[in-house]
Amino acid sequence: MRTFAALALLAQVCQLALAIESAPYDLVNSAETYEERVYPAQKWVTTSHLSISHHEATSDVMFRKLFNYIDGQNDAAPVTTLVIPGEGPNCENNFTMSFYVPAAHQDNPPTPTNPDVYIEERPELHVFSRRFHGFANDEDWIVNAAQLHDDLVAAGEEGVDFQTYYTVGYDSPFVIIGRNNEVWFMKNDMN
């Protein structure tokens, strides 16, 4: 009986992991270590948190708020976190975490009941993205953001905002193997 219950749970986890809908984007350019993409204007469900603590602890607080919004239906991905570093060693960083609202709900997403959660009308977003795998910790995000920075500078990319960045996770917490993560720097529109 326990084996059956474990298999049933595993099947549900696999179904959950495979049902995640990613935000649509257009691929502008693909380099060896990064991609340039444009995400169209879309709705995201969002919450923010100021903290001098590390990304991991802050992420847990914000994730719980957003997870409660989707009421246990983890059908939204990617999970993006905009990181605006504070100036100085002990200043608060601003973290803004968002779940992509699936296409079926873009026109009329459910209204959040938590005042800390809101629907964000995110404008078109032009990003440079670097992908890496595994469970990501603070050091992984920083190392990959630094590598993306160096790759973009070496490639002569212009108009990149290196003051803020996004951390992006694509997998539910139940995915153990083959996890996909990205760091994004935004490209400033020069129109």
Automatic annotation (TrEMBL):
UniProt signal peptide: 1-19
TM region positions: none
SUPFAM superfamilies: Probable bacterial effector-binding domain (SSF55136)
Keywords: Signal
One Pfam family recorded for the sequence: SOUL
Keyword Signal among record annotations: yes
Presence of keyword Nucleotidyltransferase: no
InterPro entries: Reg_factor_effector_dom_sf, SOUL_heme-bd
Family the UniProt entry places it in: Belongs to the HEBP family.
Protein's UniProt name: Putative heme-binding protein 2-like
